[in-house]
Amino acid sequence: MDVPIEYFVLLSMALFSIGLFGILTRRNALLFLMSVEIMVNAANVNLIAFAFYHGNLTGQVFALFAMALAAAEVAIGLGIVLVLYRNFRDVDVTVPTTMRW
């Protein structure tokens, strides 16, 4: 009983759409980071599904690298959020207009 590849693609498309909606509509920096993570996980679902479908491990290796990249992105993103909160007492991404050039 194999699950068709279309189900994984639909799941990935739904996750990516939810993440994109979160990026476009939210102002909170933490929710922004969570939306980016959802989009990265959507890409990982596609990579793993197509790797399984084609019978090779390349997609799974790329998914592992993407997970490591996502972990580094979260660490740097949380550091930026902490600096944002420390300087402006808010995590709204539209507040720090003084950080522009």
TrEMBL record:
<dbReference type="InterPro" id="IPR001133">
    <property type="entry name" value="NADH_UbQ_OxRdtase_chain4L/K"/>
</dbReference>
<feature type="transmembrane region" description="Helical">
    <location>
        <begin position="31"/>
        <end position="55"/>
    </location>
</feature>
<dbReference type="Pfam" id="PF00420">
    <property type="entry name" value="Oxidored_q2"/>
</dbReference>
<keyword id="KW-0830">Ubiquinone</keyword>
<keyword id="KW-1133">Transmembrane helix</keyword>
<keyword id="KW-0472">Membrane</keyword>
<keyword id="KW-0813">Transport</keyword>
<dbReference type="GO" id="GO:0030964">
    <property type="term" value="C:NADH dehydrogenase complex"/>
</dbReference>
<keyword id="KW-0812">Transmembrane</keyword>
<feature type="transmembrane region" description="Helical">
    <location>
        <begin position="61"/>
        <end position="85"/>
    </location>
</feature>
<comment type="similarity">
    <text>Belongs to the complex I subunit 4L family.</text>
</comment>
<protein>
    <submittedName>
        <fullName>NADH-ubiquinone oxidoreductase chain 4L</fullName>
    </submittedName>
</protein>
<dbReference type="GO" id="GO:0042773">
    <property type="term" value="P:ATP synthesis coupled electron transport"/>
</dbReference>
<feature type="transmembrane region" description="Helical">
    <location>
        <begin position="6"/>
        <end position="24"/>
    </location>
</feature>
<dbReference type="GO" id="GO:0016651">
    <property type="term" value="F:oxidoreductase activity, acting on NAD(P)H"/>
</dbReference>
<dbReference type="InterPro" id="IPR039428">
    <property type="entry name" value="NUOK/Mnh_C1-like"/>
</dbReference>
